[in-house]
Specification:
By secondary structure, this protein is an alpha/beta fold. The protein is built from 14 helices and 14 strands.
Length: about 375
Amino acid sequence: MRILVLGVRGIPNVQGGIETHAVELYQRLAKLGCEVEVVVRSPFVPKETRNFGAIRIRRLWSPRTTGFEALTHSILGVLYAAIVRPDVLHIHAIGPALVTPLARMLGLRVIVTHHGPDYERDKWGPSARRALKIGELLGVRFSNALIVVSKVIAETIRTRFGCDCDVIPNGTVTPTLQTGTEEIEQYGLVRGRYFLQVSRLVPEKRQLDLIRAFQAAKCPGWKLVLVGGIGADDYSRQVGEAAKAAGVVLTGFKNGTKLQQIYSHAGAFVLPSSHEGLPIAMLEALSYGLPVLASDIPANLEVGLPPGSYFPVGNVEVLSERLTAMAGITENPATREARRRWVADTYNWEPIARQTYSVYRRVLAQPSAVPEQPPL
């Protein structure tokens, strides 16, 4: 079974939830016998990168311009798919899903994974939001099968479009806890005495809320660490200035052992975001056994943490109080280990890959890749 993947900025070592999803999912689908080729965007992947394990990497040009990057690359990706003729074209996210009708017209079988209503992201203006909503509509109506990563998204799809979908969540891998401390020592961090957020620096992740809450909290001896690529945009500049004023540690993008060390020795993980699909970074934090504070948006609530782990999104005062309370709690190793076991059992990539493979087989069993009548 030959699978071509579209909608991913790049793999490996490219920051982003969809990119992490692709790395974990397609390694496992390759083991299940799929031939996987991932179409990536030229600004994110070096020219010499041709493979990632058993996954082939196809690097196609795209502009580095917000709003045009995904669409331009998706059109080129569909044209490439029309040439190589995969058994299944798997498109990720509702922006790239704009090209779903074109792919169907070219006779391709298409699966779309809906990772979340991206039009709710704070960074988009009215035109971009409208385009993303159209992408959602076209992905839902024209795909051979629709996968969503959460029950919240599934309910939205059923209510808005009256159609069914496959709910296949994001997953996590149980990591080996790191004992080395050289990575945290370079930032002056002490084991178990820092709050951690791992995400891109974008408005919907609400780093500014977290910095203000940390400033107001009474957590002597604790620090706040923000891990994520620092851009040249206005929001990144604001975060940088606020972090400097508050003594917050900005590490930039981290991966591999360096990121594992930072996770392993954190005291707690905080996710104050206003928009998520199903938060992979939260699942990763839980896989290290970390206690978590998260905003009470539906996608975060779906993970199923205890009620005390949530706070009202945007409420800096309550978040500050929760940070103070969490800094005063000392957890025993058994509690953290139980948390690790729970997330490993609940969000395991192995069954997720098998579920996805079953969707591929179902789509391949359909008699025709081209609908006899337009689904709209």
